[in-house]
Amino acid sequence: MSWTLECEAPLGTSLKVRRHRLDNGLCLVSVRDTSAPIIAYQSWFSVGSRHESEGRTGMCHFFEHLMFNETKSLPVGEFDRRIEAIGGDTNAATWVDWTFYRASIPKSALELIVSLEAKRMTELVLSPKVVEAEREVVVNERLQCIHDDVDGFAGQELFRHAFNSHAYRWPTIGWMEDIKSLCIEDMEKFYRDYYAPNNLTLVVVGDFEDSELLAHIEAQYGALESSGVSPKEGPAEPAQFGERRHAYRKPVNSARVLYGYKAPPQSHPDWPLISFSCQLLAGSASSPLHRELVIHDELASSISCEVLPFGDASLIELSATATREHSLEQLQEAIDTKLRELTDSPIPQSEVDKVANQVETEFWGSLTTVDGKAESLGHYQCVHGDFRALFEMAKQLSEVDASDVQRILREYFTKNTRTVICIEPETED
Length: 429
What we know:
This protein is 42% helix and 21% strand. With 429 residues, it is α+β, with helices and mostly antiparallel strands. The chain has 2 domains: 3-221, Cytochrome Bc1 Complex, Chain A, domain 1; 244-425, Cytochrome Bc1 Complex, Chain A, domain 1 (2-Layer Sandwich), CATH 3.30.830.
């Protein structure tokens, strides 16, 4: 077993990103940063809720919980105790395209974290007791985050209706009936197939010696065999040719609306322009939608806009909450009117310059810590297949002009490609 250096690229003026690969397919993205004696160690698995199937949704998120439990060499809770004992911190996240596990540790604990992560990737105990205990936790999490949370419910319904064919249509946490019925046999197969070196990208950023890092990882992961299984790709989402509307009544004080405009994947050349345009529309208190609808007309108490960084066809989410004095119809009409005005009238260069400064600050600000660097590199390596797409994104964001924004508004913020979720306050009988 040996390492292959596939590529390297500068990060800022003094750091360098390297990508190595083992013969079994394991990918390592590393940045030696000695500015502080700490290390971010992250395990990114290229499997998310989009790789699940009908009847087995929620599996990826379920594993996010299971991975902190018993292994063949560690009892329940010991993983966390060992990290806490050395002053470290650990957590995990699951989304549509990936699952990742993160640890922030002192530099002296490098060998320990490599060993701990390798063992829970290969020695997880999926006993009925452990599985049922975590199933109850996940069920309660879904109740709290979707059933009892209006915003969570609206987001679920937006994706359920915006996507007819693509697996983005179900929530990352899964459908409740699937969570309750996932069986241990399916979990064991999922673990064998996807928690394997050929589906893993390790991202390590911090104060370490390159030779030491490579040696520790090869010692713990080098003998592992590839599963030979890659996440299956589902059907592409067909084009949408008409607005879709769905309304619900919930125990809220004010009505709210959530729009989902169809957008391309993050790898598409238009995605950075859309992200920039969302920031221009509603990214600050001085942005046009916030300035006009929240401050001046007092039609909305809040408004936001973002495009989701998905590997496949995505959504632009525009959400707003009406003030009690105004109806949802008034708010929606005002939003559409303002979007038309911005599309038809020249956008001042001063607005574009202001947003460019905001975007640049936020982009590079997210890379100031070892954890921030690791998370960004991991996302781009998993979603784009190459961490260097991160730096191309920075270049594209810096080149946006007013004509780009108007084209994006004209092409993507259209009624025919949007799904609308309306939430109205419940009325007394």
